[in-house]
Structures are given as C-alpha cells and as structure tokens.
Amino acid sequence: MDKTALITGATSGIGKATAFLFAEHGINIIICGRRKERLKEIQKALNEKVKVHILSFDIRDKHAVHNAINTLPEDFSKIDILINNAGNAHGLDSVEQGNIEDWDAMLDINVKGLLYISKAIIPKMIANKSGHIINIGSTAGKEVYPNGNVYCASKHAVDALNQGMRIDLNKYGIKVGAINPGLVETEFSEVRFKGDKEKANTVYKGFTPLKPEDIADIIHFAVTRPYHVNIADLVVMPTAQASSTIVNKEL
Ligand code: NDP
Ligand code: 8X3
C-alpha cells in the first residue's frame, strides 16, 4: 500500500536527502521548509517517481503549521510517517556572551516547531490507528559541549520529547523513535556561523564527516522495519568521531 511521509526541513541537508531516498523507494512525500523555490525544484525532480506535495511555512508560526496540515489535499491527508527534522544551531558562544535572538531561534524552531507540527499530525495518526514519528535529535542531545549550551539544551529537549511521545502514543500503536547524528556535512554550520562559509568548512576539515545521505539511509531503514520493530533511539557518528569534542583528524 502507498505510504506518505511528511518531512520537515526538506529544502537542504538531511531532510532533502531523505526526500530523494523516500521517492526512490516509492514513498509519497510532503516536503516542508521556508524556501519555496527549493521545494519546487525538489518537487520537479521527484514527481515522476512519487506524489509530491509542498508546504512552505515557518515552523515557528503555530497558526501557519496548523493551517498547512489541516488543509492538505485529500491525496495527502493520511500521513503515515512524520520526520521531525527541521532545525539548526544559531551561534556558538559561551553562555555569558550568547545572543538572545539565537537562543529564541533554537528553542522556537528545534523544540516548539517540532511540537507544533507533531500536535497537528498526531490526531490524524490516532484517527488512522497507525503512524511512525522519527525525531531527528543529535549527539548534542546526549552530551553537552563547550559553547553548545542552548543548542545542546534544545536537542536534549528533543531527546525528552522523543521519550515522552513514545510513552504517550504507545497506547495508540504509534511508533516513535529518534535518530541522533554526530557531525554531518550540510548547511548546518553555515547557518550556525551566519553564512560564514569558510568558518563552516573548518568544522568538517581533516576527517570524513557523515553525508546527509548516510542519515537518510538510516531513517529509511528505521521506517521500513516490520511493524513489531521500533528503532527507539539511535546514535550515529562518523568513524572519526568519538564524542562531540573528540574527532580523529587522521581518519
Ligand atoms: P540544514 O541547515 O542543511 O537543513 C535545515 C533544514 O531545516 C532546512 O531545510 C531548513 O529549511 C529547515 N528549517 C530551519 N529553520 C526553519 C524554520 N524556521 N521553519 C521551517 N523550516 C526550517 O541542516 P541539517 O540537514 O544538518 O539539519 C537537519 C536536522 O539535523 C536539524 O534538526 C539538526 O539539528 C540535525 N542535526 C544536524 C547535524 C549536523 O551535523 N548537520 C548533526 C545532528 C543533528 P528552510 O531554511 O528552507 O526553512
Ligand atoms: C549537530 C552536531 O556536534 O555540531 O547536532 O552539535 S554538533
């Protein structure tokens, strides 16, 4: 039977790679993000393979999220899989120097945005008596690193929400699990360093980081397990990485 997945943050990085891989495997997709042109390009590239619907909203805007989900066309109204992926780090500053706008952005997008979209979709999953939610956490949700303070807090919140959702939605047979990546080369560091590409590139220099396709592959693995198998919480790092601060620059 045809499945439909809604992927937040599909205009770039992990979300975009997941959209391409899902389409390759015949999963219809609802792709979300603010950059509409990018969504249109992805739709154009994939709509001969599967049904593709685009939703452009800022995930911080709870009304926009609610309206987008509750006005989906009939073909896309049954969402089998939700990939809660939209998110970013903003800044890398010691807490006493932290920028309050950066803190707001991380908490509003990574935590509250994830809640808004989940709140809009969960009732549909309950009504359908099925559903699978994958929360994209981070190694930053498992340990705290210097200057990571609020980003790490936002991802620890995702870790807590992943556990909380799994507990609360268990009675409906809805699967909930998290994939927690380490260093993945995407636009993540460019966003963190506010467009400074040179600074962003240094994060991934001297070792082989994960590619967004590596995480997409694992997400696809998670959503294609038999019904009785739930990948509840998975951490994945590049081989060169041992922790948030230990990276072997010879690998
Ligand atoms: P990218 O910057 O490449 O992608 C981020 C995505 O999030 C974009 O599609 C962006 O879309 C979307 N997004 C950001 N802000 C908003 C917003 N306000 N409203 C709607 N969508 C938004 O980064 P990644 O692919 O690396 O990040 C994806 C997820 O993976 C994030 O949750 C991140 O924290 C997590 N992660 C990343 C790691 C890494 O090393 N790269 C490691 C661990 C976890 P648009 O700008 O078009 O709105
Ligand atoms: C992204 C990984 O280590 O840059 O969540 O915070 S890290």
Q: Architecture, according to CATH?
A: 3-Layer(aba) Sandwich
| DSSP helical segment count | 8
* Uncertain regions spanning at least 5 consecutive residues: none
Rounded Rg: 17 Å
List cofactors, ions and other ligands.
NADPH dihydro-nicotinamide-adenine-dinucleotide phosphate, 2-hydroxyethylsulfonic acid
Mean pLDDT: 98
CATH superfamily: NAD(P)-binding Rossmann-like Domain
CATH topology: Rossmann fold
What is the number of strand segments? 7
Work out the count of structural domains. 1
The helix-and-strand class reads alpha/beta
Largest sheet: 7 strands, parallel
Helix percent reads 40-55%
Query: Which series of helices and strands comes N to C?
Result: EHEHEHEHEHEHHHE
| Shape type | globular
- Strand arrangement across the biggest beta sheet: 3-2-1-4-5-6-7
CATH class: Alpha Beta
